[in-house]
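Usage example:
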Amino acid sequence: MLIERAAAMLGRHEPVSLRSVVAGTGVSTMAVYTHFDGMPGLWRAVRQEGFARLEEQIAAVGITDDAVRDLTALGVACTENALSAPDLYRVMFDAATGSEDATATATTSAAATDETFDALVDAAARARAAGRFRADIDPARLALRWRAAGHGLTMLVLGGVITASTARAEAETVATALFVDAGDDPDRCRRSVAAGWAD
Amino acid sequence: MLIERAAAMLGRHEPVSLRSVVAGTGVSTMAVYTHFDGMPGLWRAVRQEGFARLEEQIAAVGITDDAVRDLTALGVACTENALSAPDLYRVMFDAATGSEDATATATTSAAATDETFDALVDAAARARAAGRFRADIDPARLALRWRAAGHGLTMLVLGGVITASTARAEAETVATALFVDAGDDPDRCRRSVAAGWAD
DNA sequence: GCGATGCTATAGCAGCGCTATGTATTCTGG
DNA sequence: CCAGAATACATAGCGCTGCTATAGCATCGC
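Running the assembly step on the lines above writes:
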């Protein structure tokens, strides 16, 4: 399928153009228009494919009785997904790539993000129910803070500003700071966060 | 100059192309090649212009005796700079935009980031010297955490995933969590962070 | 004054996304 | 089972992109 092909070319740092993506497949450029309504539609499909892969990786994170570990591990899964396919990640979250209308991209990203984001919110809610976080903590807000911080570190890695190992170390500190701020016990939080990276 | 023109067109959401940027200026397309070595060079120049403006806005943040407030305010200045010119911010930090070689963009961003980043590191160092942070805190690492979190929230706003007001609220919580984690007194930290937004 | 050097304008290249058009193929109704 | 309708296809070409080769012009050193 053209979507997988586009994603593969993206990973190989090859330019993905209307003509290059259909070259060798035997199909013509018109197929892109009948199936995807043009290149913006193909980018949209690639974006959804990226979110599907992210969702898959998110689902692979097991649920344990340590919800704080789970919450950490979910964030780690997002980051690992991004670093394993940087260009795809950029297509997913950067409205400029694919030169599509920014608002359309935003809608797609926001909707697709919600699904993968639910897992983090659930983990945060479970942690609160287990007494790890204060009762007045909004799980969605806490998950957003954690996800946004990870997203920022990831984007800086993708932009070449910092290295992946630096981001890894700082993410651990940030996670601990956020979760302790939400009410978790510092020592216990540190252990849970560390466990979140231990596969 | 073509750089300002390109930045202005970027802000007006107009497509910035070789021909469109020179249209009306009287100069020919060749000027872009003699002065900027092609479109990638022009994007590089626009990026530097963006960092210059950011540096200007960073410099406008006054130094007070409350270094934590200053550190917060510097992060706020970065965010405000981004939201006031979203497309320019994307060009600055997104390697894909301008379709330049990713590594070259990374080098430019990393180097230019260092200069604007120094102000945050200095503020963090002053806060540590004032006893607000623990002695074992690395100012550069703490500043990176704060900046990365703000960057992540900003990118999500630019991507349409969250609103600016949501980012504003979460940034305050994140800043407090990070600075308290670094050793600051919770109540005092909250006041300083809040003051960071109060212009 | 004059040759040399550097900048500029023009024309044209290959590539891009996209569309109009004619053809083939596949569903659908009787 | 077959005619008619609807859909998907390949081709050719449009206007645009970044870029470059060439020719003309200005300026500077001597």
